[in-house]
Amino acid sequence: QVQLMESGGGLVQAGGSLRLSCVASRSIFSFTSMGWYRRAPGKQRELVATITTGGNPNYADSVKGRFTISRDNAQNAVYLQMDSLKPEDTAVYYCNVNRFDGTWRVDWGQGTQVTVSS
């Protein structure tokens, strides 16, 4: 199992920015993809952004142009830069890893709260 530690959440006003970090307990070089999901109150967990081993990003339509995902293999980390935040971005954000070690596995972090006030 891979341990994932998220940080960077908090309270911010609409239009502001936050940067989420997720550090893995071991090398991420071989991970097929890493990403961020979120769950807002009363809603299902949804994809925010993912990034492949090759650095190809994928974004939910709701965050395109505002959020940027990146990964640093040397730091075993993935980041989510969130700009122009809106109240509807309020949610618990979870780091995610998809990897293959003979079988497909998915790992999740504990989550970090992001609250955007209007």
Short descriptors:
118 residues; 11 strands; 55% strand; mainly beta; single chain; 7-stranded mixed beta sheet
Could you give the topology of this structure?
Blueprint: E1 4-7, E2 10-13, E3 18-24, E4 33-39, E5 46-52, E6 57-59, E7 67-72, E8 77-82, E9 91-100, E10 104-108, E11 112-117
Summarize this, please?
With 118 residues, this protein is an all-beta fold. It has strands at 4-7, 10-13, 18-24, 33-39, 46-52, 57-59, 67-72, 77-82, 91-100, 104-108, 112-117. β7 and β8 form a beta hairpin.
Mean pLDDT: 95
Strand segment count: 11
* Helix content range: under 10%
Largest sheet: 7 strands, mixed
Q: Supply the number of helical segments.
A: 0
Tell me the Rg in angstroms.
Answer: 14 Å
Low-confidence stretches: none
Shape estimate: globular
Distance between the termini: 39 Å
Compressed to H and E, one letter per element, the order equals EEEEEEEEEEE
> How large is the share of residues in beta strands?
over 45%
Secondary structure class reads mainly beta
Describe it:
With 118 residues, the protein is mostly beta strands. The protein contains no helices and 11 strands. The strands form 2 sheets. Strands 2, 4, 5, 6, 9, 10 and 11 form a 7-stranded mixed β-sheet that branches. Strand 4 and strand 5 form a beta hairpin.
